[in-house]
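re: ur question from earlier - yeah i can do the single chain one, its not a big deal. heres the input i used so u can compare w yours
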Amino acid sequence: MSKENSPEERDAIEAKYRELARSFIKDHDLYFMAPEGRYYMWLPSSLKWSSLPEQSLRAAHPEYLSNDRWRILLGEMKAAKRNRHIQRCTFLPVTDDEMNIMKWDHWLKPIEGRTENTKWFDYLIQALGNSTPDNMLHIRQVLGWKYMHPEDTQIPCLCFYGEGGAGKNLLADKVLPVVFGAGSTWSGLFEAVKSFNGQLAGKVIVNFNEAADSKLDNDYLKNLVGAPVLQVNEKHQRVYSADNIALYMISTNNVTGAVKVENNSSNRRWSLLKISRALVAIVAEAEGVDVTTAKAMISSAVSTVWTNPTEVAHFLYDCVVAATGLGVCPPAHQPEAEMAALRTCDSADEIIQSVFVDDSRFEFITVSMLYDLYKQHSADSSPGATPRGKQKFNAYVSAYIEQHGLPVGKAEKVNVKMSTGGFQTAQVWFSKTQHAGGPTKLKENSGYYEQGRFRYVDTEIAGSERMLSLVMNFAKEGGPMNAAPARQSAAGV
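and the output i got, formated as tokens:
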């Protein structure tokens, strides 16, 4: 428009520009975030939001380089309530002042029925479900429930552990991105998001791949899974809150790299799915081929079946059917055998916590004694379960100390006062606070408890149920036990 145009002509041109602006707004998910002074536009081709300053947006759409047309577009955006002040990522309704960056209208739509290739999804679920009907049904129900009720934050975490090559990451990295969109899933190491977790914001599927004993922070994981709100910490940015919308999965070859079971309600977070056979073995048996041929067939299925939207849509239909009629979220799936195995692992944490952390008077304990206490507690808490071997237990203790930053060291050759009155060379765990330079000779007055409860640390005392009771009850009582010691020195201490 120019001054040369008559008022009637200017009105007609402005009306035309307004109509074009309305069409542009209708055809584009475009919002202005006032606090940032930036424009957010949804890009259907890449299934993600683009955040642009004014100059970049106008350059991408040259028709709005005109100041008149830009002015009109801004007016129409305001009229269409496209100016927002709060950013949300949620499956719940938002107010007119909030911009919801969560999009799900592009999710894959289920297709009823089966094809000749649906069997490949059966093989995958059979491997992940350990050929156990209850396990296989549970996996389908969880996936179907997440699809139908994406806002539910109480869906249990699927913990796959055991045999390698079972397709644990195939489900998260190949199949589910087809369902929810590649931008809605994330798979990686647990450590990658422990400090800066911006990758988790807005994700529908999060898969922690190969979580290891030395890296898994069970307390952090407990606070993450099932929490309605996620505290997002992106590097060099202010921490903000987001809806915790993800279905969490853990894929590991090690049971203790999954979770640690406790005797409280936190167990409702975990579905424990042990895997005993590799996917290639299941395919070879079902197809009647050798392992080499089965591997080639699996490789082909990755591109032709497991990432094919039509084929995945038929699998999705099976999952939706499995979850239909449940009424409530599928409860955590916890076969007793898996629970017992994980309780054994947790007993190690309880012993370490009781000795190294809960006892403010802790000075030292021999490596052998700590292991004997662990075995005793494992037998009491999980009858019939097999505890770790001594070497693995000691490695776990070292990893626990490092992970939690405990001021505890390990000395290889220390003269330890024995109940017989003499000294014996032994490996010990010692308090760096009490023995900053490392112990060389732990004398009689350097006892573990004030009244000599663990002053003598030989095998006879270590195997005593009385001694185990003293250790395990210390945190509850709030200090050293006052009962008579199981064994006294010649001086009667």
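Confidence is low (pLDDT under 50) at residues 211-215, 443-493. not sure if urs matches, ping me
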